[in-house]
């Protein structure tokens, strides 16, 4: 019997006999999502249920009702409501031959990150405009030198997309088991600093592979070149441009006193780090003394230093 709404109804059952099959409206719906189920008329059940431990495939088959069995008396079953037709969407555009059209949006294939090379500037172009050049910068300095402030300001105001990657921020991703620098240097501190440098290096390569410049800041010591500059060169590439930010000790102590949390070190530790950083003098790396410079002035001087470094790359 055909239902008025288009969905077939199950065959009626005989008195005292369960129905021959279990009827599922979803099996007859073209989309697999039927509308509200109609009310079950008298005489319809849910089908035979096997006893516990007996598979349903071993249940004896129920004989089908005779073809001319009379339908049970009762009110007629109302037709099942039909869902309104879905609005027609825009026509699908076929992809060119040999090209698979993506079924979802927002999936962008990114190029693999590779070792960073020094930006090439044609000789006829003269002094390069570093504000519009994609490059990678390593800003070196002691705690309190103003590396983070200068790096953020410099990255915010460039003509090309630029990211700021802070080694301290990445290192502090470690929560449980964090090696606090205030507790001294140990094997855990060494391991977490090296891991943070490698993570920052991978991030820098990926940014640059997608046309985004980056500036990294770290307290790299000149008396440990293999761990410091050597590590950055391995992780980022030979095109990384290192610049040292080294104000006077009094300025560093004042700025460190304004810090809070685990980034504030003791005066003795700040003085010791500053003394080690003085070894960068005579190393060949460009050095900026920002003792009497504000952040915008230091950022402008950084652009001048980078322009010279691109024209004549430092040996490191």
UniProtKB/TrEMBL annotation:
GO molecular function, one term: kinase activity
Ranges annotated as biased composition (Pro residues): 8-18, 62-94
Organism superkingdom: Bacteria
Keywords from the UniProt entry: Kinase, Transferase
Organism the protein comes from: Streptomyces griseoaurantiacus
Protein name: Adenylate kinase
Bilayer-crossing regions: none
InterPro entries hit by this protein: P-loop_NTPase (IPR027417)
Coiled-coil ranges per UniProt: none
Pfam families named in the record: AAA_33
Region span, Disordered: 1-122
């Amino acid at each position: 019997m055909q239902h008025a709404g288009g969905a077939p109804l199950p065959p009626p059952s005989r008195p005292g006999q369960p129905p021959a099959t279990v009827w599922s409206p979803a099996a007859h719906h073209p989309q697999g999502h039927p509308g509200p189920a109609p009310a079950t008329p008298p005489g319809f059940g849910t089908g035979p249920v096997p006893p516990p431990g007996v598979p349903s495939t071993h249940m004896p088959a129920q004989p089908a009702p005779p073809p001319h069995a009379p339908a049970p008396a009762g009110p007629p079953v109302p037709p099942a409501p039909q869902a309104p037709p879905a609005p027609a969407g825009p026509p699908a555009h076929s992809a060119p031959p040999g090209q698979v059209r993506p079924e979802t949006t927002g999936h962008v294939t990114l190029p693999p990150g590779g070792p960073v090379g020094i930006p090439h500037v044609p000789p006829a172009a003269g002094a390069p405009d570093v504000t519009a050049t994609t490059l990678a910068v390593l800003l070196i300095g002691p705690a309190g030198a103003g590396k983070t402030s200068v790096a953020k300001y410099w990255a915010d105001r460039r003509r090309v997309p630029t990211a700021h990657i802070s080694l301290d921020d990445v290192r502090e991703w470690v929560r449980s088991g964090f090696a606090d620098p205030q507790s001294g240097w140990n094997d855990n501190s060494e391991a977490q600093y090296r891991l943070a440098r490698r993570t920052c290096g991978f991030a820098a390569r990926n940014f640059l592979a997608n046309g985004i410049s980056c500036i990294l800041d770290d307290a790299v010591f000149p008396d440990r070149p293999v761990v410091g500059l050597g590590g950055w060169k391995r992780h980022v590439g030979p095109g990384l441009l290192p610049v040292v930010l080294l104000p006077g000790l009094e300025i560093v102590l004042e700025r460190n006193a304004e810090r809070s949390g685990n980034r504030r070190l003791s005066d003795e530790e700040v003085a010791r780090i500053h003394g080690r950083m003085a070894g960068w003098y005579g190393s060949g790396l460009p050095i900026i003394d920002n003792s009497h410079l504000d952040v915008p002035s230091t950022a402008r001087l950084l652009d001048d230093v980078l322009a010279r470094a691109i024209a004549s790359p430092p040996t490191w």
